[in-house]
Structures are given as structure tokens and as C-alpha cells.
């Protein structure tokens, strides 16, 4: 059970973008588990690492002291989203993933990308506003 102090320490636990990234990661793991063994331990393993990177960089960025540092970790998450989608697209081209499943996961990552982009815009606005106040 978490208390208010814990929530301040791990504020990412309440973020919708973090929860969405976890949800789609579960789907990615389920996709990889169904792959033929030769792909599961090569491309599948890479897709799992990049999908997990999305989550972990959101969490790590939330603990940074400056908006600039936080934004950098969100950039890494965005890069990991691109890597994950590219890996899934390869599975699609190899006929190891159904189009409907690819599209569902793609749309979820698109939403997460937009959420992270919104976070980054807010951080940039806040930085500009602080600079203008000096």
C-alpha cells in the first residue's frame, strides 16, 4: 500500500502515459511469446528490450531534478517507441504478426508518443516562462 509520500517519490506511478506504456508492453510480450523460437530470441528479445525501455525511461525521467533532464529521458522513450514499432513492422513483413494486432499496438504507441510530446511541450513552455520571468 502506498501513502502520499511514496506517491511523490514515485510520481510516475500515477501518470497515464506510464500506465499506457505498461499495458502495451504486456501485449508486446504476448506477441513475442508466440513467435517461432529462432525469432523469439533474436528480434523478439530486442522488441521486448525496447518496449521495456519506453517504460523505464518514463520512470527514470520523472525522478530528474530539471525539466531539461526529464525531457531527455522522454526523448529516449520516444526513440524506444520507434525501435519497438520498427521491430513489430518487421514481424508483420515476415508474416509473424497479424495486421490487426500490429495496428492495435501501433495505435497505442502513437497515443503514448503524443502524450510524451505533450509532456515535452509543457516542459518547454515552463522553461520559456521561467526564462521570461528573469
Explain this structure to me?
The chain has 6 helices and no strands. With 134 residues, the chain is an all-alpha fold. The protein has a single domain, classed as de novo design (two linked rop proteins) (Up-down Bundle). Helix 2 (16-33) runs antiparallel to helix 4 (43-62), helix 4 runs antiparallel to helix 5 and helix 5 (67-93) runs antiparallel to helix 6. The longest helix has 35 residues, at 99-133. The model has no long low-confidence stretch (mean pLDDT 90).
Question: What's the SSE blueprint?
Answer:
Blueprint: H1 4-9, H2 16-33, H3 37-40, H4 43-62, H5 67-93, H6 99-133
Helix pairs in contact: 2-4, 2-6, 4-5, 5-6
Low-pLDDT runs of 5+ residues are none
Radius of gyration: 17 Å
Q: Kindly state the mean pLDDT as a whole number?
A: 90
The third-level CATH topology is de novo design (two linked rop proteins)
Q: Which CATH top level class fits? A: Mainly Alpha
Number of strands: 0
Structural class: mainly alpha
Tally of distinct domains: 1
As a percent range, the share of helical residues equals: over 70%
What is the approximate shape?
Answer: elongated
CATH architecture, by name, is: Up-down Bundle
CATH superfamily: 23S rRNA-intervening sequence
Query: How far is the N terminus from the C terminus?
Result: 42 Å
Strand content: under 5%
What string, H for helix and E for strand, traces the elements in order?
A: HHHHHH
Summarize the structure.
This protein has helices at 4-9, 16-33, 37-40, 43-62, 67-93, 99-133. By secondary structure, the protein is mainly α.
Amino acid at each position: 500500500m502506498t501513502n502520499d509520500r511514496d506517491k511523490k517519490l514515485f510520481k510516475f506511478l500515477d501518470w497515464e502515459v506510464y500506465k499506457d506504456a505498461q499495458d502495451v508492453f504486456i501485449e508486446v510480450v504476448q506477441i513475442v511469446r508466440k513467435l517461432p523460437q529462432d525469432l523469439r530470441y533474436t528480434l523478439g528479445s530486442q522488441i521486448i528490450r525496447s518496449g521495456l525501455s519506453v517504460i523505464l525511461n518514463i520512470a527514470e525521467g520523472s525522478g530528474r531534478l530539471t525539466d531539461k533532464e526529464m525531457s531527455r529521458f522522454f526523448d529516449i522513450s520516444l526513440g524506444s517507441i520507434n525501435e519497438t514499432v520498427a521491430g513489430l513492422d518487421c514481424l508483420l513483413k515476415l508474416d509473424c504478426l497479424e495486421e490487426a494486432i500490429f495496428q492495435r499496438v501501433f495505435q497505442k504507441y502513437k497515443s503514448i508518443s503524443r502524450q510524451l510530446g505533450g509532456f515535452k511541450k509543457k516542459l518547454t513552455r515552463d522553461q520559456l516562462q521561467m526564462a521570461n520571468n528573469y
